[in-house]
Each structure stands twice: as structure tokens, then as C-alpha cells.
């Protein structure tokens, strides 16, 4: 059985069952912008880091062999999707920095009023991202946008990360379309 998944962030992930093991091959066009990590997403809500892609000619590639049992325990079998996420940028313009007044970047007055101090920010070609530390025992920053947040580890802690367009409007993660959304 072979399954080919389009990866968010570009490229494909092919899964081939070989007895109790699953052979995984991720291929993405090489853009020399940074290092990319591949994540496998499961129908049961799992998310498993497969590793970092390596240059091979004009593509980036990652090979892995994982037992089907391990994928099941991670909630990633059966697989439902995959992501190629830039883990490290080779250019200095895409680094996280501490924005003292993130409320000035957001268009919606209600969301602006909910920001209580500095947040991590990262400029991107078509907008920016804001990140706030996430704690299970405290309030959530930008609570109305909770469903649009992605958890990411930044500065050694879990943060909720939101993506905004140039105008400061929230973007739906992983949506592709004419607006240039990821």
C-alpha cells in the first residue's frame, strides 16, 4: 500500500507499508531559504516529528522507517497530512523578536484591547506572526483566536502562535488561496 500526501509548506510525503514497518520519503523543492523539518499528522489528532530534510541535488529529502505500532501510538496512523516547516532561516529577516506594542500591529479593536504587553513577533513576506506563552493554568492571550493558534516551542517554552496578514487581520492556518496564505 502506498499513500502520497501533499505537504503544507511544499513538497510531498510518500508512505509505503512494508510488513509491520512504514517507509516514509519526504521530498521538497530546494529553495536555499533555510532548514525544514517534516511533521506527520494523523487522523486521530497526532503530530510526529519525522526529522530535518537534507539537500540532495535540487531537492530536499528525508527518509525514515518507522513501525506502524509507533505511528499508531503517536496518533499518526492512519496518516491524514504532513507539513514541511522552516525550522531555521538562513536570512536574518525572519527571526523572532520581542515587540513592545503588538497591539499597534492588529487591525481589530477588540483584539487590540486584549493584548497585555510585549509578544514575540516574526515578520514574514505576506504579514507577520505573533506568539504568546501558553499555560494550562492561566488565561489565553487573544482568546477569541484560540482556534487559529498553533502551538510552537520558542525560547524553550510552548507558545501559541497566530499568523496575520500585512493589514493586521488574522489568517486561517494552512489555507491556500489567492491571498497568499500558507
Q: Outline the biggest β-sheet.
A: 8 strands, mixed
> What proportion of the residues is helical, as a percent range?
under 10%
H/E element sequence: EEEEEEEHEEHEEEE
Radius of gyration from CA coordinates: 18 Å
The SS-based structural class is mainly beta
Lateral strand order in the biggest sheet: 5-4-8-1-2-3-7-6
Q: How many individual β-strands?
A: 13
Query: Judging from the principal axes of the Cα atoms, what is the shape?
Result: globular
Query: In the residues, how many domains can be counted?
Result: 2
Stretches where pLDDT is under 50 for at least 5 consecutive residues are 175-182
Distance between the termini: 30 Å
* Percent of residues in β-strands: over 45%
Helical region count? 2
**Average residue pLDDT:** 88
Task: Kindly describe this structure.
With 182 residues, the chain is mostly beta strands. The chain folds into two domains: 2-89; 93-165, no CATH class. Helix content is 7%, strand content 50%. An eight-stranded mixed β-sheet has the order 5-4-8-1-2-3-7-6. A five-stranded antiparallel β-sheet has the order 9-10-11-13-12, with no helix packed on it. Strand 2 (12-18) and strand 3 (21-29) form a beta hairpin. The model is unreliable at 175-182 (pLDDT under 50).
Amino acid at each position: 500500500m502506498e499513500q502520497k500526501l501533499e505537504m503544507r509548506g511544499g513538497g510531498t510525503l510518500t508512505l509505503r507499508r512494508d510488513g509491520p514497518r512504514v517507509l516514509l520519503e519526504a521530498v521538497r523543492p530546494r529553495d536555499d531559504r533555510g532548514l525544514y523539518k517534516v511533521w506527520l499528522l494523523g487522523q486521530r489528532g497526532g503530530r510526529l516529528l519525522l526529522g530535518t530534510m537534507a539537500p540532495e541535488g535540487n531537492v530536499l529529502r528525508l527518509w525514515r522507517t518507522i513501525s506502524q505500532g509507533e505511528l499508531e501510538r503517536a496518533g499518526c496512523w492512519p496518516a491524514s497530512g504532513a507539513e514541511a516547516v522552516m525550522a531555521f532561516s538562513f536570512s536574518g529577516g525572519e527571526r523572532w523578536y520581542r515587540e513592545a506594542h503588538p497591539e499597534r500591529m492588529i487591525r481589530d479593536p477588540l483584539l487590540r484591547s486584549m493584548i497585555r504587553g510585549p509578544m514575540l513577533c516574526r515578520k514574514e513576506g505576506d504579514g507577520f506572526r505573533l506568539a504568546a506563552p501558553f499555560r494550562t493554568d492561566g488565561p489565553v492571550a487573544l482568546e477569541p483566536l484560540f482556534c487559529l493558534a498553533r502551538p510552537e516551542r520558542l525560547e524553550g517554552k510552548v507558545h501559541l502562535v497566530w499568523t496575520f496578514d500585512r493589514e493586521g487581520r488574522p489568517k486561517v492556518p494552512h489555507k491556500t488561496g489567492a491571498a497568499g496564505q500558507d
